[in-house]
Amino acid sequence: MFDSLSDRLTGALKDLRGKGRLSDADIDRTCREIRLALLEADVSLPVVRAFISRIKERAKGQEVSAALNPAQTVVKIVNEELIGILGGETRRIQFAKNPPTIIMLAGLQGAGKTTLAGKLGHWLKKQGHTPLLVACDLQRPGAVQQLQIVGERAEVPVFAPHPGTGVGGEGELGVTAGDPVSVAKAGVEEAKAKLYDVVIIDTAGRLGIDAELMKQASDIRDATQPDEVLFVVDAMIGQDAVTTAEAFAEGVDFTGVVLTKLDGDARGGAALSVREVTGRPIMFASSGEKLDDFDVFHPDRMASRILGMGDVLSLIEQAEQHWDAQQAEAAATKITQGELTLEDFLEQMLMIRKMGPIGNILGMLPGAGQMKDVLSQVDDKQLDRVQAIIRGMTPEERANPKIINASRRLRIANGSGVTVSEVNQLVDRFFEARKMMAAMSGRMGMGGVNRKSK
Ligand code: GDP
User: Fold this and answer.
1) Atom of ligand 1 nearest to the CA of 286
2) Which residues of this UniProt protein bind GTP (predicted)?
3) Ligand 1 center to residue 288 CA distance, Å?
């Protein structure tokens, strides 16, 4: 559902790539594009404003990262801020110390509450819980029956009033068919009596927000004291999701949000606004009509999906984790002065290899898809061989490769189990590369590869 938002954000950030320095004008232009992309995706205006101002402030505030170039730094900032508006940490269900845990569902009609009750029950059951669904939507014709069908499919028992008789549940507990509060209470009693450890209460929705609906939902809440009240909202309703969320936050109060219909082709702004506007975490996401189209909502995963750069982001993370700034700085200085040694080269190579198999690292670079053929030829075995050759050299040879004459080459080849021509190739290429890098960094007037985003 985030396809067009994702395309636009990726596009906005792509323009920054390859720039050694970012001017304030570059950042302003990128922020303008991000702003348009978010507004077009139906994210609410105050949320967009706050988001953009944080990005601007951080990007212009020059967060320096030795491991990242300026464009990567901006991607990192946008990603972190996106995770922030999506709620930061993953928020999980808080189970009651003394079961049963009571989870109440609230939301407009058609939001997907009944479907969710089944999915949630199914999911909890898979984790070893024993859930009971309680049918308190006594308004909509057929709602009770719908929950029973859903429960059957999910293989989760349903507590429901018997139609017409005024008698509830599975027989024994008397409740009035027209009174959802009594049904809810009886459902909880049933769970206690039969040792179900989670109760999921499905409540009635309306087509629009109204006072009576809110009162009914808050009466059920007061009577059952739920551990979690989940506000279920259809992500496809756009800006209305925010208004509805505010009304429910006011009228019923809730502890978490469930976004449904994320499989739809809507613009998805709801996902990005609800948390920021209500201050309540998004806890689950529902993305289809099947029982398994449901998952815990992870802000970080959602952000990288929206940015459409999951791989680039993990590359950034790994680079930050493994980058030794001092070492890189020292190597960069040597490069500018044409003094890089094979020892430095080996160290740099080892640093990069700490990030994982080389094919994976290169494969994570943007545009790697189009270079599949080339990448498939770069393998770790080749690098192992290069490492072995350098390790077969004496410290003196590594520091001053010029002394590596024919007899030394033969000794190195024998010692590291390769042919002399492989040693020749490595040494020749090293000299070529050293010359080229020194010339390039001289021309570009910078301190080598390790530019800082100042
Ligand atoms: P309720 O009135 O809140 O109980 O909503 P329902 O559970 O009856 O759902 C309303 C409609 O939305 C039904 O046709 C569901 O099959 C459909 N639905 C619910 N969740 C999803 C979802 O995540 N994706 C899609 N595509 N449809 C859904």
Assistant:
1) 23
2) 107-114, 202-206, 260-263
3) 8
Q: What's the whole-model pTM score?
A: 0.71
CA of 150, closest atom in ligand 1 = 7
CATH assignment, 3-89: 1.20.120.140
pLDDT above 70: residue 48:
yes
388-434 confidence digits (pLDDT tens): 899 999 999 999 989 999 999 999 999 988 999 999 999 988 888 88
Mean predicted confidence (pLDDT) in 284-307: 87
- Cα(243) to centroid of ligand 1, in Å? 20
- The number of the ligand 1 atom at minimal distance from the alpha carbon of 146 is 8
What is the CATH topology of the domain spanning 324-444? 434 Repressor (Amino-terminal Domain) (1.10.260)
CA dist 149 and 172 (Å) reads: 22
Q: Could you give the ipTM of this predicted complex?
A: 0.98
Annotated domain spans of the chain = 3-89, 101-297, 324-444
The architecture CATH gives domain 101-297: 3-Layer(aba) Sandwich (3.40)
Q: pLDDT value at position 314?
A: 63
Please state the three-class secondary structure of the chain as a single string.
CCHHHHHHHHHHHHCCCCCCCCCHHHHHHHHHHHHHHHHHCCCCHHHHHHHHHHHHHHHHCCCCCCCCCHHHHHHHHHHHHHHHHCCCCCCCCCCCCCCCEEEEEECCCCCCHHHHHHHHHHHHHHCCCCEEEEEECCCCCCHHHHHHHHHHHHCCCEECCCCCCCCCCCCCCCCCCCCHHHHHHHHHHHHHHHCCCEEEEEECCCCCCCHHHHHHHHHHHHHHCCCEEEEEEEHHHCHHHHHHHHHHHHHCCCCEEEEECCCCCCCCHHHHHHHHHHCCCEEEEECCCCCCCEEECCHHHHHHHHHCCHHHHHHHHHHHHHCCHHHHHHHHHHHHCCCCCHHHHHHHHHHHHCCCCHHHHHHCCCCHHHHHHHHHHCCHHHHHHHHHHHHCCCHHHHHCHHHCCHHHHHHHHHHHCCCHHHHHHHHHHHHHHHHHHHHHHHHHCCCCCCCCCC
Measured from CB, residues less than 6 Å from any atom of ligand 1 are 107, 109-115, 205, 260-261, 263, 286-289, 293
